[in-house]
Amino acid sequence: MNDNYTKNCFNNILKAKSVYDVAIKSPTQFASKISSKINNKIFIKREDLQPVFSFKLRGAYNKISKLKNVRHIVAASAGNHAQGVAMTCKKLKIESSIVMPSTTPSIKVNAVKKLGSKVILFGDTYDDAYKFASNFAKTNNYDFVHPYDDLDVIAGQGTIAIELLDQMKQHPDYIFIPVGGGGLLAGIGVYLKTINPKIKIIAVEAEDSACFNLAYKNGKPTALKHVGIFADGVAVKKIGTKTFRLTKNLVDHSLTVSTDEICSSIKDLYDETRIIAEPAGALSLAGAKKYLQTHNIVDKNIATILCGANMNFDRLRHVSERADIGESSEVILGVTIDEKPGSFKKFCSIIGKRAITEFNYRYSDNTDAQVFVGIRTTKGMSERKDIIAKLKKAKYKCYDLTNNEMAKLHIRYMVGGPSANAENERIYRFMFPEKPGELLSFLNNIGSRWNISLFHYRNHGADFGRVLIGLQVKQTEISKLERHINGLKYEFFDETNNISYKQFLK
User: How many domains would you assign to the chain?
Assistant: First the structure.
């Protein structure tokens, strides 16, 4: 903590008082319900209450307000930085253009437009938008404002830490900080570790966009091969150079959380505050819940950051479906039961007085019935294991599908039995940017060389469309098919050996 780079950052944070020209000193709220639930004192820094519903306004204003002879500002953003830049430029009467990925939730795009900035939609990810914005700024000799890898932006975000320590009666024992490009982590981390090195800093990322975690392990910024964008506010392929330099020796632990765990924390935050956090906004709490439980930590002061609440309404269906699994209050099973009268009643008697949340079945043959079932639980993993043990003791063939992504996204909506005519079938799960016309584009790219024997697509209200497809491919053609698929732009998974496919559809 004694290097000049870190000292300069700390001093810049102390000087970043201009942020309050546009930002508020957001409250730090004690979360009584969540605290009781996880046996620690949980505090939530409410950055969702900022005028643009996220912390990004701080860094944007601190940066832009210092620029001289500004003609036009350009920024690239998945949404929240864009709104911060747009509001700043509106206040300072500066023209601005914001480049956003075409997958950006409409609530963020519309908010930027209403603030007076020109919006340019380009690419499927933040990195696509960033490259375009950088070239656009250079070509036109405009000022480019980076969303995280800029010392003035970092200093602006660091003002959160000043407020946090002023608002808490005691310093936190742990703080869980969501990470995208690392600007928030750097600003808060530098200030807190300078004031009190004993505060434990835990970096939290979505498991499908964990660029800091990868850099943390490798000791240097390293690009991810793929970036999932359910948590679009932190969907960054590579951690910032400046942010990583400031944080690599400050962070005590780095962890990742699943989509289900994020959705569970969105529900927790709603129950506590009646606010609907965006996925990135719930990252901090999701990380805290996971870390505190796995490390058996109790009775500590825990700080979390609700960093944003720019959530598209149509994504709530997906969040609601996944929240119960994320908080271990639902188990999903694939069970083989006898195909005869009374079998369902017998099955339910073994389950006991538990709520069945889902039951999917279709007649297949005269001996066995394949059932896809969801069961409400109250005691987490121990109850899940108990249910499975009781079913196996009763001689049921039973598969735990609770963490099976294909089963949760597709199979639960497709339980209709196998097809006798689907010979030489191979199953693939694809992801593609969710935008008008993209499903047709996907089908055109797959082509018509191989017959489609199975297809499931459902709009989940998320930024990526998800397709499960079966293709009839002769053994001699498999290598050609795989070369073709690998040449496409889509992320995909070979699910031919997935147990839920074998049980319900093969």
Answer: 4
